[in-house]
Amino acid sequence: MAGTEAFPDLGMHCQHPECNQLDFLPFDCDSCHKVFCLEHRSYRSHECPNSDHKSRKVVVCEICSTAIETTGRGGEEEKSALERHEKSGDCDPKKKRKPTCPVRRCREVLTFSNTSTCKGCQLQVCLKHRFPADHSCGHSSAAAPARAAGSNKFLIALAARNAKAQDCAKDGRGGVPISPPNTPSVKAC
Fold first, then answer.
1. Which of 10, 140, 152, 163 matches a 20 to 30 Å C-alpha distance to 179?
2. Contact (Cβ atoms closer than 8 angstroms) between residue 99 and residue 111
3. pLDDT per residue over 130-166, tens digit each?
């Protein structure tokens, strides 16, 4: 019987031999089909005899760094999976090299967290070279006139707005006359 006197169908007792705690949100083990509390819900904590029935392990080949999936039932099976992989012809030591950024003089190793794929040329580069101008993208020249046209429209609109504001200032409708900002000139030596 589980639950309380008021609610006899509420919750279940943990089936761990040393626990028997009443838990209102019990966990069903998908391997041994027993009910456990929060503390004993993992395979290891309740020493489940069938814990390996759904487990998947991956062994990494030391020669070529390829991941080989095993069922995870024992060390001997892992060894036999590695031996089968080596004999299959797929084990190539040349595959062990990790990919690097293709930009000249960049030796950055490409990993999951520092790889960027260019939308223009579909080239995978490191984060330092993620912009088209940084990795000499072939598609960046096609996008440059569109960007220039957009910035020209902006500059034309800005100039028209400034001209209109200066006209208003001259007519006496505006407050302080607007003057173009003074930009210091820089001399190159």
1. 152
2. no
3. 888 888 877 654 444 544 555 577 778 878 887 776 6
Please write the tens of the pLDDT for every residue from 70-96: 765 566 677 888 888 888 877 877 766
Q: Can you read off the two tokens belonging to residue 53?
A: 């029935």
Give the integer Cα–Cα distance in Å for 142 and 150.
14
DSSP per-residue codes, the chain: --S-SS-TTS-EE--STTT--EESS-EE-TTT--EE-STT-STTTTT-TTGGGS--EEEE-TTT--EEEE--S-HHHHHHHHHHHHHHT---GGGGSPPB--STT--PBP-SSSEEE-TTT--EEEGGG-STTTTT-TTHHHHHHHHHHHHHHHHHHHHHHHHHHHHHHHHT-SSSPP-PPP-------
Backbone φ and ψ of 109, nearest 5°: -80, 130
- Name which of 47, 39, 44 is nearest 20 in CA terms: 39
* Integer Cα distance of 69 and 73 in angstroms: 12
Distance from the Cα of residue 97 to its chain's centroid? 22
